[in-house]
Amino acid sequence: MRVTQNNFYNTFVADQQTIKEQLDILNRQISSGMKIKYGYEDPQIFSDTLRLDYEETTLAQAVEVSTDAKNFAKNTDSVMFQFTDSLIKFKTLLIQAANGANSDSNYYAISNEMKSLKEHLVNLSNSSINGRFLFSGTAIDVKPVDSQGNYHGNAESLKAVIGSNVQIP
Questions:
Q1: What is the pLDDT of residues 38-96, one digit of tens each?
Q2: Percent of the chain at pLDDT above 90?
Q3: 120: exposed, middle or buried (C-beta count within 10 Å: 0-12, 13-18, 19+)?
Q4: Helix ranges, 4-153 (H)
Q5: At the topology level of CATH, where does 64-168 sit?
Q6: Three-class DSSP category at 151
């Protein structure tokens, strides 16, 4: 085979074209921050990217649900502490009333304070966070206690889904 100037020129131009295309690809990757633009450029990287995007979304949802569950539990604990304090106060008033050494006006005052404590306990029982009642079980949209003290929720416990087949109460 005879090598001519024309062959050298064609080879040189083809090499220059290949180098320019590779440089264009690298410049696009640098400017966009993405290794590939289209899935057909590298199917393995594309499938890895899809998998990682899915995992990132799943983890972000798990963090959001976990944070929400943590806030729900903290608020429930806070209300339970207030509930305990109110019950201790109620018990103290019962002991004072059972003492027998009170005048009628004292019994009337104790009675009024106990009524207000009952209302406070009902209000605590109906505590809600973002429209979700804390003490109504899984029926979070149902007001758990009416003004008479009757319970309308259920006994099921809430579970937070924090991953694939992973739930915590």
A1: 777 788 988 998 999 988 998 898 888 888 888 888 999 999 999 999 999 999 999 98
A2: 31
A3: middle
A4: 5-32, 43-98, 104-125
A5: f41 fragment of flagellin, N-terminal domain (1.20.1330)
A6: strand
